[in-house]
Amino acid sequence: MGNSYAGQLKTTRFEEVLHNSIEASLRSNNLVPRPVFSQLYLEAEHQLTSNLEACKRPGTEEEEEDEGSGSSSPLIPYQMKAPPEGCCTTDGFCQAGKDLRLVSMSNEQIEVPSGFLLIGVKSPNLPEHLLVCAVDKRFLPDDNGRNALLGFSGNCVGCGEKGFRYFTEFSNHINLKLATQPKKQKHLKCCLIKNAQGSLTKGPLICWKGTEGRTQLSALSSTSSNPSQPPESPASSTTVASAESIAGTNQNASTGFQQAGAPIDQALVRAVTVVSVTPHNRDSSRQQNAMKTNNLSSQNMSRPSVIGNLANSGPPKKRHRGWSPDSPSTTETGSLQCNPSAQNSGSKADIVELACMTQSSLLGPIPSPLTASEEPVVVPDNLLKTCRTRPVIFKGHGSFPHLCGNLNDIVISPLLQNCYRNTQSLPRVYEQHSTSVTTVLSVEMQILLTVYYLVQLAPDQVPLIEDLEHILVRAWQESNLTESKQYQQAVSQSIPYVSSQTLAVTPKQLTWLAKLAASSCKNVVRILDSSNSLAEGLVETFKLLIEGKLQGKNFVVIICITKNQSTESCVVVTGKRQAGFLAERMLNPKEHLKEINYELVTGKVGALGAFFSSLCPEGDIDTLLEKCSLARNGQGSCFTASAKKFGDTTAQRLTVCSVSNKETCQIHPVQLAVARKLLSHVCAIADSSTQNLDLGSFEKVDFLILVPPSEVAYQQTVLRVRQSGILVELGLETESVANQCAEQYVMKLTTETQNKFEAFQQRTLKNPYTLFILIHDHAHWDLTSGGAIPQSEPFLGLADRIINCKEMKEALNVLTLQVTSFPFALQTQQTYISPYNEIHWPSSCNNGVNLYHEDNKYFGLSDFIDSTYSGHRLPLLRYDSSFEAMVTAVQERFPKMHSAVIWTYILIQHYSAAMMVTAGHSQMKNYSSVETLEIIQSLISSTGSCPSSHGYMVLLRIPSISLAALAYERLCQVRYRLGLQYRFEIILGTPNTKINIDQHFLTQLKGWQKIEDPDWAPQTYLDLEDLPCILILSGTDPCGESFPRSAKYYDLRLINSTCLLRTALEQELGLAACYVVLDAPGQTVIVNDLSESDLDKPGNTDDEEDNVAIEVTRVADLGKKNSIKRHRSYSNHSASSRSSKASSLICDSDPFSASGAEDSARHPLNAEFVNIEDSSVTKDKPKLRADNAQQKPIHETRYSEKQRISLDQIDNSNKSSRRTSEIFSSDSSTTQTPILGQTPSQCPRTKAASQPPTVFLPKLVYEIVTKVDNAGVAKLSSFLPHHSVHWITSFHPSLAKMMTSTEQSLYYRQWIVAKQNHMDFNKIQSRTEMFHPRRLLLNGPPQVGKTGAYLQFLSILSRMLIRLMEVDVYDEEEINLKAKEDFAPQQKESLLWPDLETFTKLLFDYTVHDPKYEDASPVYSKDLASNKGTKANKKEDDIYLRRHTTRMRLSKYAAYNTYHHCEQCHEYMGFNPRCQPYDSTLHAFTFSCSMLGEEVQLHFIIPKSKEHNFVFNQPGGQLESMRLPLVTDKNPDLIKSPVFTPTTGRHEHGLFNLYHAMDGASHLHVLVIKEFEMAVYKKYWPNHIMLVLPSIFNNSGVGAAHFLIKELSYHNLELERNRQEELGSKPQDVWPFIVIADDSCVMWNSFNTEISENSTSLPAEQKILERNVSLKHVLQHIETTAQIPHYALCGIRKWSSKISSPYLAEPFSRCHLHDFLLLNVDLTQNVQYNQNRFTCDDVDFNLRVHSAGLLICRFNRFSVMKKQIAIGGHRTFLIKSKVPDVPMSISPSQYICAPDSKHTFLAAPAQLLLEKYLQHTSNHLFPLSVRNYNHPVLSVDCYLNLGQEITVCFVSSRLHSLNINSSGLAFSGLLLYLCDSFVTASILKKFHFLKGATLCVICQDRSSLRQTVVRLELEDEWQFRLRDEFQTANSQEDKPLFFLTGRHV
Description:
Layout: H1 13-27, H2 36-42, H3 61-66, H4 102-105, E1 116-122, E2 130-136, E3 154-155, H5 167-173, H6 184-187, E4 188-194, E5 200-205, H7 217-224, H8 265-273, H9 282-291, H10 359-363, E6 377-379, H11 383-387, E7 392-395, E8 403-405, E9 411-413, H12 415-424, H13 428-432, H14 443-456, H15 465-493, H16 507-518, E10 525-530, H17 534-546, E11 555-561, E12 567-573, H18 576-585, H19 589-601, H20 606-613, H21 621-634, H22 637-652, H23 669-687, E13 700-707, H24 711-724, H25 726-729, H26 738-741, E14 746-748, H27 754-766, E15 770-776, H28 798-803, H29 806-810, E16 814-820, E17 838-840, E18 845-846, E19 849-850, E20 856-859, H30 861-867, E21 877-879, H31 881-893, H32 899-918, H33 930-942, E22 953-957, H34 961-977, E23 985-989, H35 999-1009, E24 1029-1033, E25 1047-1051, H36 1062-1069, E26 1074-1078, E27 1124-1127, H37 1156-1162, H38 1175-1180, H39 1182-1190, H40 1194-1201, H41 1244-1249, E28 1254-1257, H42 1259-1266, E29 1285-1287, H43 1301-1311, E30 1312-1314, H44 1321-1326, E31 1335-1339, H45 1346-1364, E32 1366-1370, H46 1396-1400, E33 1445-1449, H47 1466-1469, ...
Parallel strand pairs: 6-8, 7-9, 10-11, 13-14, 13-15, 15-16, 16-31, 17-31, 21-28, 22-24, 22-25, 23-24, 25-28, 38-39, 38-41, 39-40, 44-47, 49-50, 49-51, 51-52
Antiparallel strand pairs: 1-2, 1-4, 2-3, 4-5, 7-12, 11-12, 18-19, 20-26, 26-27, 29-30, 32-33, 34-35, 35-40, 36-37, 41-46, 42-43, 42-47, 44-46, 45-47, 48-53, 52-54, 53-54
């Protein structure tokens, strides 16, 4: 921040000479220096230079690492490592949740390791506490600040964690939450010792380098510092700007600092930063140096710094640490310190010399109470009456005297005193960046700067305390910059350095310098120097006021130099305008209204009304109006007929105007984008590990919208809810009653409507599965705390009592959305809203490209401001200098009157006079202003240019309801007396009343809008579209109302300009915000595109999220865009626009006035400037345009006419300097001055649609809004955001020009805090540290469409919830089914369990019916030839892309993936707070496997919460077995079978959460994973048991997992039988089943059939009844099957929506089972899964189980739904080349190659290559088998997929196996896959083969291949060739498979 305003310090010639004069005076013994102007004009000009190289300080590398330094670049904030999920983040506690605060641990017994010391750590967030830690003393300095090892070693004494080797790591662990790089020198403060009572207490401070002698601190601190100040007070630190930033000091500017309009802060700062005096005696400095006394803080100071008598501990470094918006800060009180030595080696340590100043010269005297000898100052009587103002006295320095007497005539303000006090406490942000403490501004400097500020103010300009604070901050920064530079130069040149504190202005020189400055300000400032006391100066001031000697003096600065050389001061504001403004600014908004009402009630305004009446040349204005009324009534029937004719004409013209008034309700792309942003933030909350929002548990959305207590805003929101159709879309209401019920979902924040919230609250309790959205619209309107509610305004604080009530904050199904255009007051240090939960309105334009493809651009405050830069058109944002002049004059006449009353009376006068002028009383023209005449003439004449009498709206803003009612009554009276009651309506808009209009205008509105309802009345201001009217909008603050597009003028001249708050001013200016629509082809109009609030960006910047630039084009350059249309937003979600054309001087002609043309000739102010739309008029009259170019500038004519007001107090020479630049360009083709009466025949709506509205402001507000500083930052952005917050210090940095909304949010979160009456203040009381997890903030510009955006958000949120409740499941009909006529039921339909005897007689169905095997080889059976279900066309291998799916709604028994979070399954998922998530152990389990020929070691990962399912030899010891229940167990809540789920690549998407599927029942679930995936699965499923396969199976398929599951389960069964036998149970009673389930099984269903009662057909029709059931129900049903140990496999069918009813007649089937099955590991002991298989392993296993004579039972009444998961599974196996970085497409034919060939090897398992090769190319390998279903390929002991065109006949070689009868069957091929010894030549000779049949023998290696051929005597019947030997395309290390082909002979 050090020099962020300019980058370079520029200096003018005047300032340079002034600096030289000041310096000369300070160095001279003579107090009269050489005159400034002599130097300025008589001496040769010279420039100041700065040596940048001298600024560089040589230093050690270690010091540069320790401290930041002096680059002017902004600090890059330190990125603190994110804390681990679930850890504690509370200040004062470590991440393990242990309290580390000294107050808590003082009596704890702490074990300190040898060599360690207990140290107190300073936390920036807990300044009043020390944290306790243990640090290795080797890394701490000794008493001399030396011998400390680099680095850190420490332990946490809270949780006991040891071995922290980095202080950064340790600071994260103890939650220091630093914004800068953690440094032990800064935060390790002191040693901790035990006192006599044994309690741990604070001991000696740690003496880091540069701070030696700290233990001698108190010896000398009392001699040089304030005795009342604590000696151990740590010094603050500050950022010092780099020396490079002053490189521009030799550049001269063109103006002096006192020039009007010039930036004053830098000029004033430069005027004092170079002040110097003669250095003190060197001997005295050395004497002080010898003392070696210091009082440095524990920070490592290495910058020149002085506070009090603090000297430098070292020069600054090269890096500069500026402020960061998102860095936290702390405040520490600075103390007066001295440092005797520099940190340089050698003799340089003796160079630095110190000079200490007294406390009084720096900080001023300590205020003392009034002594008995001091007499109070008497305020003279009649002070107000005499000087016509109430002086405002600002307390300054020193003791302010006691006042007595006529105290009612003065105002005493502490603002200046508070400002001075704030300068003494350094800003916290600088301390955070480890910079050394530097100088503070002395009292004399502060007074001198104050004088400089007052001097440069214009005579009519009011002072602002914000400006003075800014000047003091800049002066402080630049003085430190100068000091830093001087020190660096001194060190580099080896010369003595004198601290700049000794260079301050002395008290004797202060008075002279102040008078010197005041001499150049036209005597606006008077300097009084008092030698005794301030009381003497005040007495003198009062005397001068009474005597009238201070006329023209606005300020009197009293300076007193006391006897002890301390300086006291105060400022008396004597200017009438300035004193009145400052007095009223001390009032809050409520006090303002109270004062206004008091004056109205007591009748004090009577004198004001009499004064205005006396101004009329013909006497009382009311008398003149009465004459007009009598004259009009005297015409009798003539006027009646005229009015009737006017009404009839209007009625006839209702349907003539062709301009449409209908606007459709639509959502625009930018609103949809914002809605999606909101949705993404909600999803982010749900996806976080905090478990604060479980979107998966919600079924629907409900909402309640809170709006301010405005009837119009309420009806407006209700209308938008109706138009959006959201109630029907969310299913909350039916379409027939939705419009009537809409009001139940919108609530005004009044006590009368609290029943709506109570109903909403009841719904949240009764519907836990509904997500409720509580929307707080216009959230900035009421920020009052619910506990600080006055009785008179019970509605205040209601928002706090609703959204912050305990029920709403703790309800897990309530999400709060706060919506506002002005979020600043919601972004405090205590805010409940996380910065990550803020959504900012995006920009719609990027480098001129429309991102959202819309033809509209937002036209907001920045665009209005841009129009003021135009030089050839009147701006859209203006102030009325004539009105301001009259206000000033009247305020001087009535000093006791509140300014709002005066302003309102004058404006009523102007409006009344303007109406009288329009009615023909031209003599009243001089009693109104040009602007008011323009408004009224345009309003009245607008209806004459439209056949339907459409007109303009004028919005008159009067905040006071009482004054608004007064204005309404007066204007209605004037309108009626002038006979204008049918020309325009006057409407009083108050917050709590409905819109009321006359019947005549109501009829017009109904006709325009084609409304036939007789009871219809306008509910919103949007309903007043096209109605010519003056809308008087009252209320302290606007409540978010929208206004129609016909609003042409926004008269804001009466807004409270004393309430200078950013929110208050921006919301007033936001009333006129609108859109600009560009709909003409070939034309381009670019306006300031607003991505955020108009002043959210103090300058033009980029949007932080969309990275779009804002293109700025002056509004005045848009004059030729004649096709631009402007319309107001019919609703906030309606994309609407306004033109950027700025021809706001247009006044339609007045056909009502007969003297219009004549008056126009004499007074050009009545002339109308025609719009560009009137192109025909423009083209036809070039002469008029030329004449206009030669006319006197119109603004000069106007201001010469307006000065005729007969007020002595009005200065006729007071003209606006601004107007002089508003001369119309003579060559402009868009303007001309026709004579009044030439009215273009164009509808006013078209005119209004072609240009933005014109806004009139008070001059003060206008200057604040349009002013920017040298850095381009808008002045408005520097004001306090809201009256319910305050800055933490005056020394806060300013907003930067390029700040985005997010950066501004972080800025306000750091620098403002909530006051006690703010709703966020309660967070301090409750000490809540965290943000509310379910609260969002939507920030968008006013009138941009936020309502439509959040209604659209509700819509897409509802759709997303519905989508979350749905899942895509496979919906495929079973393949290869029997024909209907061939189906013969063999069992009773009513059977629930199979009968073993009956089931044994069923035939096994060899046919595979699972549709996923549609591409697989059919298994031969006798029925296959007649049911050719296979398809001839070959398909792609990626079946996921073509398989049919259906979207199904999840039932309450569904299985979920890792994204599901709900309260019920927190513990199941491992989020039990009593059990840490990663609290699990790894156990090895070893068993022997004959199939593998060796012992197998598996590893179990067992969470602590699941250890009860296992048996250990001792607690936490060796794993022995997994517990199995007994067959006889009858526990209804127990699932007997352990569930094994093999999975790969689906750690996020696998459906492993079976809590809901099991209906909460106890069960054992084991995930079977590969070793390389162990870490990621453990992370996502911390509470799941995992079986980790050996690393040799990392590249294996699902067959290996099934194989090891079965082998492990059988071995475990044997162990459990032995264990249970020891416990007395029978071995055969141990439960032998396990469940093997796929990781995509999502839901389970139960089917029942019933015969239709009305069915007459034979057989009767069956109706299928399907319902969702839990997995618990399915498993328990199967497990209760009678004699279930006799079944080898049990399973269920695959779900399909196309269920065959006849097929369901068989409740059980003997057929293939897939995906979900119960496996009897006891019966299938000798039947193994093939561990080498990747595909079809379940078909292969089913066939071998059946051939072994075992029973396979499928329960047809149950089905399983499988979710489509396109991630993981078999798709994780990719076949690619082993040659790296060689892209190539590999066809299946390349999966094999000839042995010993140079074929490219592939990086894939050999078994996978073989299976894929056979699947895709077997039609070439077995040519005789293609589509030859009667001659299948014989496959011995295995099933391999040979493609869908080849049929496979499975035969087992085992003895006593069940095989298909192959007698008479000739095979077309023979497949021998890894034959074992059971396959013999005799078995093969039993089968017959076709001639030419193909043989394929597959073996592990070439040797086995030859041995197999010999052993099986294959050469007897088969012919082989050498070239028919192949291998898979694997390298030797990958162990390829070999196969040999031959032909039958």
